[in-house]
Amino acid sequence: MKIKTRIIGIIIVGVGFLFLTSFFASQEINKANREYSAQESITAHSSAWISNMDIEFADKLLIFDPSDGTYENIDLWDRSLDTFGSNGDSNPLFEAIKSKDGEAVSNLMGSIFSDVIELEQLTFAVAYDNRGLQLYCESSLYVVGVDPCAESASPDYFLNFGAFAKSLDKYSSRKVVQIKDLNEEKPLSVNDTLSFALKDEAEATIGVIVLGRNIIDSLEMFAENFEVQAAIAVGDTPLTFEDYYDEERSAELNELIADSMSHSRSNGIYQYSYINELLGSRVSSIPLSKNIRASELRILLFDDQSELLAALKDSEQQSQLAFAGMAALILLLTFFVTSSSFNRILEAISALEKMGEGDLREQNLKRGWLSSRYDEVGRLQKAINEYRLHRVESEVQRKDRAKRRDERDGIMFEKMSSLSEQLEGSARSMLLSEIDEMRTALSTGTDEEKENASIEIMSKAFSKMSDEVGTLIDARTHELVVAKDEINSSIRYAAKLQNALLPKTYPGDIDINVEWRPRDLVGGDIYFIKDLPDKVYIAVVDCTGHGVPGAFLSIIARSHLDKAITPDQYQSAGQYLSQVNMLLKDTLSRTDQKNTNEEGFDGGVCIYYRNERKLEFAGAKASIFQVQTGGASETSGDRKSVGSTRMKEGFEYTTHEISDPAGAFVMLTDGITDVMSPEEKPIAFGRRRVLKLLQQATDRTPKYIVEKIMNSVDLYRGGAPFRDDLTLLSFSLNETTVIEPDARAIGDKV
Amino acid sequence: MIFEQTQRTPYVELTEQSCSIRGECYPENISEWSAPVLEALEENMGISNGSFKVVIELYYFNSSSAKFLFDFFEYLEESAESGREILIQWCYRTEDDTMLEAGEDFQEDVESCTYELVAIEAEAAG
Q1: End of a domain among A171, A188, A217?
Q2: How close does chain A come to B67, measured CA to CA in Å?
Q3: Chain A: nearest CA to B63, how far in angstroms?
Q4: Measured between CA atoms, how close is B64 to chain A, in angstroms?
Q5: In a domain, A59, yes or no
């Protein structure tokens, strides 16, 4: 069963239950209402009737009571008063009764009651003697039912007059008295009566007076006033006005009476009120008097309720109609709302199903009657549409991905094919068959499988290519190693060349010891010795820079050191160094160009003039140390580098003449003095330390001196590497000088 | 502005009132290091016209770094000539005659700046 059918079914059943419940509830309420109104009706009718009766009694009967009546009337029954005004001080009525003088009694009583009866204030008045002998009886002309004064009339108290008389012994009595017609010609009459006894001096009852009013009159008035039909029920016998007036009872009344009698019979009750809907009447039964049981004597009242009942029925029908109308409306609305909602849900479901089948076209999801975009279904539709758009987007992305994958795979295949072409034999056929397998894998299956296949292809292709690249890198690395080896071997060869430029043999008359140590294989430090017949040039030079550039510069410097020499002419050390400076500046075109680099060298030159046994020194930021018996001394050169731009035009280096060239001499580059201690804030080895070492030297041979200084330097620097190229040259001049005729520069030949 | 110390270059701190250089200086290529330092010096000195103090405490510099120092002092000299009050303190450890001599060398070239050679106590291991 569809949910819609179920909902509608539930609503139908619910409405049915609601209807039944309200129906039974209204029945119950009606019942309660009826009971209540029955009770009300009984009470209202009873009290109205009884009070009516009581008022009538008080007005019309009680006024004659011997003790409660009017003063005037009370006197009538006073034995000792002659209210009739006949013979003095005794009451003639008493006499008449005592003497059973019917005529006299009738005259006296008639004087009191004839007018009253005629005016219908009383229906009848009777006087009896103490044994029930009727002495007087007078009744109204308009009496209904049996005439109380007729021969055939039989009042109920006659059944036991003695007891009746005795009951009046002390007080007068109010009684409902039924009078039957012994001939059964006239219907029974029912009367409200006041009875009292008349007594003699000895308080013995001499007579009984009964005054009565026919209740039928009152009842007729009551019925008229209350607009009801009324009847009397004596036991089970009903008496109606029609009975009294010898008329036919209406069929309706008969029916009502029969209904009431049967109700009383079947329920065993005599006081009730109910509505007979069929007859359209309220049927009530109330006791006739307070002093008589309803089972014996009661009044039947029939209140026409047909209009009210009709109105009630009408309203009931209307309410049922309204209920049915509401139920129908609710059903209809529910039907519409559920139909439209469920139709929308069905549409949504079918849209989702279509989407599931891959149909991503926009489905026309309508808005139904009595629904909004923001209700549950509206939101569902919105969500479905968003989902659809998301699907469309991911479909586009998927296609895009697939396209890119295809392109990528295409490139892969191309590259792998070209790779396979470079292979041979089984490797080639293996790769080709792999490519075929991959192509198959890529052409079938779901997107995911294709994606996986593609990734696999990529990884395979990458591994193949990385193999290739690895091989290539190996080849390149090999090339680099070869290149490095070549460079290293070049440098090693350059070192050989630089080494070859250094002097290998020294003049015989000079003892020379050198420590030459470029920081790298080649360096900017160089030393130079030129042995001429009459003089010897010794130079220790530190060109700016180190390594290969330093070495280049050192070669230029050496060439200028050689070129500046004037073999046949005296030249002082200062002149010589100045000449080198000039040549170097020319070479490096210092003067023309704004070259900011400071290529050049620091260093010192010595010229030993054999004949004069004279030593001259000139220095560019360099010193020469002399070690003698008396100690050591330092001779400093000028503080200008050779090749420096910071030099005034025409600057000449100073010549220092060492007149007594005894002992050993030391020349060095700043590779020695700039050796740093290994601390964080290091201090350079410095010239003073050199000087101090020389002063402490016990042996003054160049070999010893060089070793001592180098040991000290090595000790000083600890494990720290050299920062610069270093050159340490020590020489001493021998006492005897040998002059060689064909002297030439030592070290010229390589 | 601060140039951090490296194995081959000194620590340099520059403000608009002072410049201090401390450490060793022997980079492979001096102009690579010195160009930004000189630029920063000009920039900082250009900020104001007040007195400027230079403190140099070097332990070692190679010959190409000497060129940088010449340029450095030359720039200071030019500024001083144009009226700037400049004080240069060349600090050296009492044991370090190499640096003392270097300081003396530079002193010869300085005329317009106030130039002081300041001996400082070397640390225990000196």
Answers
A1: A217
A2: 7
A3: 7
A4: 7
A5: yes
Which residues of chain A are within 8 Å of residue B70 when distances are taken between CB atoms?
Answer: 646
* A552 inside domain: yes
- Rounded to whole angstroms, the Cα distance separating A540 from A529 reads 9
Q: What is the pTM of this model?
A: 0.47
* Dihedrals phi, psi of A619, to nearest 5 degrees: -135, 145
> Of A544, A550, A549, A576, nearest to A563 (Cα)?
A576
Task: Tell me which of A217, A248, A271 is where a domain ends.
Answer: A217
**Residues lower than pLDDT 50 in chain A:** 737-745, 747-750
Decide: A535 and A609 in contact? Cβ < 8 Å.
Answer: yes
Note whether B107 and B92 are within 8 A (CB): no
Cβ-Cβ contacts under 8 Å, B109 against chain A? 646
> What is residue A750's predicted lDDT score, i.e. its pLDDT?
35
What ipTM did this prediction achieve? 0.80
Chain A positions in Cβ-Cβ contact with residue B95 (cut-off 8 Å): 683, 686
CA A367, CA A348: separation in Å to the nearest integer? Answer: 11
pLDDT at B37: 92
A472: which 2 tokens? 């290539």
In Å, how far is B58's CA from the nearest CA of chain A?
9
Give CA–CA dist A554/A667, Å, rounded: 17
Tokens of B117: 């050679």
A570 located within any domain? yes
The number of domains in chain A is: 2
**In sequence order, which ranges of chain B are alpha helices (DSSP H)?**
30-47, 63-81, 97-109
Degrees, nearest 5: CA angle A376-A377-A381: 120
Within-domain flag for A663:
yes
Q: What is the pLDDT of residue B85?
A: 93
Decide: A120 and A140 in contact? Cβ < 8 Å.
yes
Percent of chain A with pLDDT strictly greater than 70: 95
Q: Which residue of B has its CA nearest to A524?
A: B63
Of B96, B109, B123, the CB nearest to A686: B96
Give the integer Cα–Cα distance in Å for A710 and A704. Answer: 10
- pLDDT value of position A749: 40
Q: Which domains does chain B have, with CATH numbers?
A: 2-120 (3.30.750)
Chain centroid to Cα A511, Å, comes to: 102
Query: Which amino acid, one-letter code, is at A103?
Result: E
Distance from C-alpha of A252 to C-alpha of A493, rounded to nearest angstrom: 159
* Domain limits for position A133: 46-217
pLDDT tens column, A633-676: 999 999 888 988 778 888 999 999 998 888 999 999 988 988 88
Cβ of B98 within 8 Å of Cβ of A544? The answer is no
Query: What's the confidence (pLDDT) of residue A276?
Result: 86
